[in-house]
Amino acid sequence: MKTKILLLAGMCLGLAACESMDLVPRSQGNTESWYTTETELRLASNDFYILGYWQEPLSSSEQWSDNTTYRQTNRNPGSGGTILDGTMNGQQYEVYALWQQSFKLIARANTMLENIHKAKGSVTQEVYDRYAGEAYFCRACKYAELIFFYGDVPYQEETITISEALQRGRKPKAEVIPLVYADFDKAIAGLPESYGQGENIHATKGAALAMKARFALYMGDYEIAAQAAKACMDLKLYSLEPDYAKLFKQSTKLNDEKVFVIPRSIENSVILDSWIVKNALPRNAGGYGSYNPSWDLFASYLCTDGLPIDESQLFDPRNPFKNRDPRCAMTIVEFNTEHCGFEYDPSPAAKTVMNYTTGKTQSNQDTRIVNQYSSYTGLLWKKGIDASWTVDQKVEQDYIVIRYADVLLIYAEAMIELNRIDDSVLKAINMVRARAYGVDVTATDSYPAVTTTDQTELRRALRIERRMEFAMENQRLQDLMRWKLAGKALNGYNYIMLINPTELLNNVVNKNLWFWGMTPQIDEDGLADFSALFNAGYCSQGAKRIFPEREYLWPLPTHDVELCPNLLPNNPGY
Fold it and tell me: Can you give the residue ranges of the RagB/SusD domain (predicted)?
């Protein structure tokens, strides 16, 4: 019998150590005897939804964008910040983790598809189609990510022999894309619209349509993206959660806006990474408060008249949360408000703050004049974060892969790029914006509805809307990359408060210039320019971000390239 291998960390990684490895998950039993009953198919499919397959490492991608700041460094856990330092290479965690986790799930999907025929005759056609659909869905999702980040990739749709594997290398991206669409279409055809109690973790028809739409948008196939998004909308199964802030709380589980999520569970010890929890919580509440929203993000939120801060008469740099899109204060902690049981005030003039639990004032650990490692931007994340995070600092917040607001904006963006702008496009954008204001989309006197039908103006509005809507949801880097704006947005300095808190007190606060000494300028791409504030001595430069042109495609993992240099040539520049 020929020795077989499963593609796990990549084709050549499998070749490096193929001596009698047991690569079949224990819950799947032996592939020779399993996949014969509905129970066995269900147990096997459960393993498709291991959190690591979906969140690693892309749940950290917000840290690789202009939406975040970590003190004075481009810090990424495990990598030293190399994604924003311009030194990306095939040995760093992000590169090999995405490759490895994707191919692991692809291998499991392929195993299901190779063996599911054994269940014919013992399960209904509906059950058969459902589990095959789940496998097609997972394979399509993972190849979608691999193509986006690596371009040409090894493509496998079956378990293969070593000799067969040696004959294969990277398949051109243009040839893989139709195969991914075909897998999504098979998933759409086979998956049910919904499940019974307890199976909500599994992919549905709507999830397959939504993920196909996202992939098509990323590939610039706008017709396919618009059609898939519209089909998802036409299912009439999803709607926007009326309360934007509530949607992200760990207490919010099943929800009509969540199209596809991987749940966490404290009971099952599947929890949010402790680094994220610690660094998101205020220091007053026992956290580090060091992983913060950037000034770039803060400046991007429109004012309540729908204008950017440098064009609106409503914006006050001394009171920067006033008259802003409501998502600003629902994403970033507003100054002098309660957060996680404490008043939040990063000003060096505020050496004490209110502890709302005790009803007394206490030393303010969230100002740098008291604690030098508190937020360097003066900003803290609020989106999804509340006092429940402080309970043993164990958090079971759902990992949202895609939600209905994204489907609406995918549809709108695809139609804008096709220059087929009609009322349905404006409605899709305005539904998302109106929800932020807590009003119906038709109440145009209560929120700044988007009304322009000019393609260039609408493209800009859509991109700003995505940034406001999806901040802290790990989509910003991918958006910048596909819009070819990463080079512009990610080359330059992160701006932060004056490093010396005494200088901040004397030069900004005591001169009545807190928080920003002047209004930053916003360019045609919605990107902020803080150079005038820096030149006036109102702020400091933080880490320098570097995004080389080569990083529009990631390198392949070094280990795989070294093993198979002829089969796996690296991407240009690495």
Answer: 281-574
